């Protein structure tokens, strides 16, 4: 039976999430998580597993299936995501919490964080705290997208700056500044942060070449995640002006192949920290 707890003192995320949008391109979105899971060095089946930022529960379900004897917890700040996760992963225990104040209820053997920490400012202390909370021989496994140099992201911020008719920037300055603020480090930075006498850190990057189908598939991809702060931060009129310009720019940057498919390179950074 799935139980959902709201951790005292936590507030829901300021960014809205739509589970149905996020579930587009499920094979492409799941592949990095499964690749990461295959690199987890567990000497014995874990007893306690946490899926941080569990979203709609797709990976949580994989974890409950992979480790049927484990107590699997899904943690997310979005009530909409948790509602979907309750149906997707009925064997998991679900908790509503902000990652900045989250603490494990039990010492975990595995903490999984799939596409989460790039959304969390100043997450270095959270990573260190999570590693310290692991059970002996426990593992923290995380992956996060690397996107600030990509065409879709640069065009998104440029469209906000260029603005609508008359050249007035769209949204308030705080929105535009927050989008340009990078919360992630490079691989060497995470190694310096997490490697030590009591830990082993395995860190790497991979660029996936996603082959997408359907009309305007890059828009459909970013609408589910990367574009959420823009959707939340603009008025209806501003977003309509933004969408017209941005969509045209995406079509030029990611033209479809003659067969109608669209190539979408997407880089991700992976880290696996093993507590000795």
What is the element layout, followed by pairings?
Layout: E1 4-6, H1 19-22, H2 26-37, E2 48-52, H3 58-66, E3 71-76, H4 79-88, E4 93-96, E5 110-114, H5 124-133, E6 139-146, H6 151-162, H7 173-180, H8 187-194, E7 199-212, H9 217-224, H10 228-233, H11 236-253, E8 262-275
Radius of gyration over all CA atoms, rounded: 19 Å
Head-to-tail CA distance between termini? 34 Å
List the strand order in the largest sheet: 1-4-3-2-5-6-8-7
CATH fold topology: Rossmann fold
Q: What is the second-level CATH architecture?
A: 3-Layer(aba) Sandwich
Mean pLDDT over all positions: 89
What is the count of helical runs? 11
The helix content is: 25-40%
- The arrangement of helices and strands along the chain is EHHEHEHEEHEHHHEHHHE
Largest sheet features: 8 strands, mixed
Number of strands: 8
Low-confidence stretches: 1-13
The secondary-structure class comes to alpha/beta
């Amino acid at each position: 039976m799935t139980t959902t707890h709201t951790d005292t003192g936590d507030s829901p995320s300021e960014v809205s999430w739509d589970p149905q949008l996020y579930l587009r391109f499920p094979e492409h979105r799941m592949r990095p998580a499964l690749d990461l899971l295959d690199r987890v060095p567990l000497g014995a089946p874990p007893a306690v597993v946490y899926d941080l930022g569990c979203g709609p529960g797709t990976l949580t379900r994989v974890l409950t299936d992979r480790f049927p004897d484990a107590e699997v917890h899904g943690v997310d700040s979005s009530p909409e995501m948790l509602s979907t996760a309750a149906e997707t992963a009925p064997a998991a225990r679900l908790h509503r919490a902000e990652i900045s104040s989250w603490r494990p209820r039990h010492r975990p053997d595995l903490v999984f964080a799939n596409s989460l920490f790039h959304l969390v400012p100043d997450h270095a202390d959270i990573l260190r705290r999570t590693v310290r909370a692991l059970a002996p021989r426990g593992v923290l496994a995380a992956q996060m997208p690397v996107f600030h140099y990509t065409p879709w992201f640069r065009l998104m911020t440029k469209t906000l700056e260029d603005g609508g008719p008359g050249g007035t920037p769209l949204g308030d300055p705080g929105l535009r500044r927050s989008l340009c603020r990078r919360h992630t480090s490079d691989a060497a930075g995470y190694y310096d942060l997490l490697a030590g006498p009591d830990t082993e850190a395995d860190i790497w990057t991979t660029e996936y070449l996603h082959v997408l189908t359907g009309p305007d598939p890059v828009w459909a991809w970013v609408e589910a995640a990367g574009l959420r702060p823009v959707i939340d931060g603009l008025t209806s009129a501003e977003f309509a002006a933004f969408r017209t310009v941005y969509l045209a720019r995406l079509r030029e940057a990611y033209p479809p192949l003659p067969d109608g498919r669209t190539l979408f390179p997407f880089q991700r950074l992976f880290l696996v920290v093993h507590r000795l």
